[in-house]
Model the fold of this input.
Amino acid sequence: MTGLYIHIPFCRQKCRYCDFVSFAGAQRYIDDYLSALDREAVSYSSQKFDTLYIGGGTPSMLSAAQLDRLCRMIMRRFAPISAFRESTLEANPESLHPDKLRVLKEAGFSRLSIGLQSFDDAVLKRMGRIHDVRTFLKAYEQARQAGFDNINVDLIAGLPEQTEAMFLKGLERLALLKPEHISVYGLQVEEGTPFYQEGVRSDEDLLRSELEKTHFSLQEAGYVHYEISNFALPSRESLHNINYWQNGEYTGLGPSAASYRDGMRSTHTADLERYLHLVREGKPLTDFSERLTGKAKEGESLMLGLRMLNGVRVSALQRRMFDAEINDLVRRKLVERNGDLIKLTFEGIFLANQAFMAFVGPFDDDKCS
Ligand SMILES: C[S@@+](CC[C@H](N)C(=O)[O-])C[C@H]1O[C@@H](n2cnc3c(N)ncnc32)[C@H](O)[C@@H]1O
Ligand code: SF4
Done:
């Protein structure tokens, strides 16, 4: 499979925990930005993509007319949106209005991903979110009325001032709505964010407890826990994201977007004005690129694959390279092995970062080839 990702780096207001490349107060650039995306898309228009993901930032912040322009660009440069096996647009509750939903549905989008984050208004305020729970419920209902039958909702666990009881109650309320997919991310506090500056830090015990209970609560509600942070009703897993975890190829458009093609990983400049300038000048947009080879390449592939809870098959080459590390993970009860399949144990799901260390370099490739 091959994925196409388009980044929309605009937000109405920056949330206090957010470290994604997105800019508040930069609306004046949106029309130029859509022109730049169109120009960038020309370089990839001969390629065929299976899945489409418009992420952000806040793609739903675009007006209905701007979304329509974006959809037409995708159809002109790539394919009708309905021809992708899956096409997702990320949306924030306060900006997902019926006129935009109509544009997206008519264009052929098959999936929405709505960021709720918490089911508690006081917590949302503390996070710097500009919507409340009522706004989310209205947007969700309108999305259903517009005909979207594949919706993901994002939540964050381990948030400050949200007790475990509040988190679990919110999770239950969300499951009652029966979105086809739920993502539950553990709060990450990155340096430079307002949360970090205020001294907010991840509470590992709270996070662990909330994530463990999420597993049982959503399983009880009929969801399959198929990736560390992701839950889906049967056969509603995200195809676009599965492609990432299976180490498939993808192409990203826009500032900070990452691509993986022909064994080469690359990332675009994250600076919006520089991105616009480079596109205008027809210059390379890449800030960073690397070709993974040998143990680094195979380790990355195993690490990504292990994120999927049904595990990853270890090739003969990977076994030669990582036999000792895998044995150690099995001994530590983080990973279990069945023939050539390895997968995280229940304990390993919550300590996955410890397991992943085994597959991260630097490696001395001379010793293992
Ligand atoms: C690209 S982001 C933003 C999508 C959308 N703009 C929104 O805010 O809903 C996708 C998801 O990453 C998660 N996320 C963002 N920052 C995070 C953080 N610091 N820790 C954990 N999850 C985070 C949120 O659940 C968010 O919905
Ligand atoms: S979490 Fe979403 S809405 Fe908030 S700043 Fe980040 S990308 Fe924007």
The pocket of S-adenosylmethionine (ligand 1) is lined by residues 17-20, 55-58, 90, 92, 115, 117, 154, 156, 185, 187-188 (CB under 6 Å). Residues 124 and 240 are 28 Å apart (CA to CA). Residues 2-244 form a domain with the TIM Barrel fold (CATH 3.20.20.70).
